[in-house]
What we know:
Elements: H1 11-30, H2 45-57, E1 60-61, H3 62-69, H4 73-85, E2 89-94, E3 97-105, H5 109-130, H6 135-153
Antiparallel strand pairs: 1-3, 2-3
Helix pairs in contact: 3-4
Amino acid sequence: xxxxxxxxxxxxxxxxxxxxxxxxxxxxxxxxxxxxxxxxxxxxxxxxxxxxxxxxxxxxxxxxxxxxxxxxxxxxxxxxxxxxxxxxxxxxxxxxxxxxxxxxxxxxxxxxxxxxxxxxxxxxxxxxxxxxxxxxxxxxxxxxxxxxxxxxxxxxxxxxxxxxxxxxxxxxxxxxx
Length: 177
């Protein structure tokens, strides 16, 4: 269902449109090929989310990654262990607190370029979709998708939004240098 800007939809029309549209979006995302350099890593959607945080927000401690991914720190540690063995991410001791581990995308240029390229198409598509919207409209869209995800998963509504605050990414990420 295509709508022009300013078109109004009833709640039922919007639900119908999204129920028909979302499977196409999911199918398209599943068909996005993993770059050759990363195929042996057997990346899952949770890895993609972790790599997105690291690419957009930079290196961060395991505990912060766990918080953002909404999983236990031990789960993130296992993911990091797996990806570090494969040369996708690196662990470094925090210079300010040697007990804390900082996770970063590898500095190996080919692997980093493969990750950036893999995420760039999606980032460009979102940037194009969001560009004509006002900041409040963008925030509404993100909250709406989050509410849908929470409702579809049966999770209770989160008390704090998980989407990054405006400007928190510092303009970094695929397609921005």
